[in-house]
Amino acid sequence: MSNYIGLIRKEAGSDYGVSFPDFPGVVTAGSTLDEARQMAEEALAFHVEGMAEDGEAVPEPSSLEGVMSDPANRDGVAILVSLKTQAAKAVRINVTLPEDVLQRIDTFAEASGLSRSGFLARAARHEMERNTAV
């Protein structure tokens, strides 16, 4: 299990936003602090899964001192976000989707800081968890 630094920021009238200095572009948010922490763990896990699928190396966690020495990070509150498991081996599949659905998936995934595969895995897990809870 690795712990990465997440930076929480909140402006008046907005949700709690979380970014990851070790993973530029990965952001998430929650309406409460607890939700933001939970979403941070999910976003980090899905991003790392996408990196593994793409054959990219996962960076070593930066130190708190290193993160906070960057002036751009000083307005955030640092939290530790656990990457509880290493990404499972990715398996390439071929899926056919309507073009308009694929465009919406790509737009949503990019805005969420996820890869297409990461988003689809997240959506599938969400749907399976939702249906097993019923």
TrEMBL record:
It comes from the Bacteria. Residues 4-124 form the HicB-like antitoxin of toxin-antitoxin system domain. It holds the Pfam family HicB_lk_antitox. This is Type II toxin-antitoxin system HicB family antitoxin.
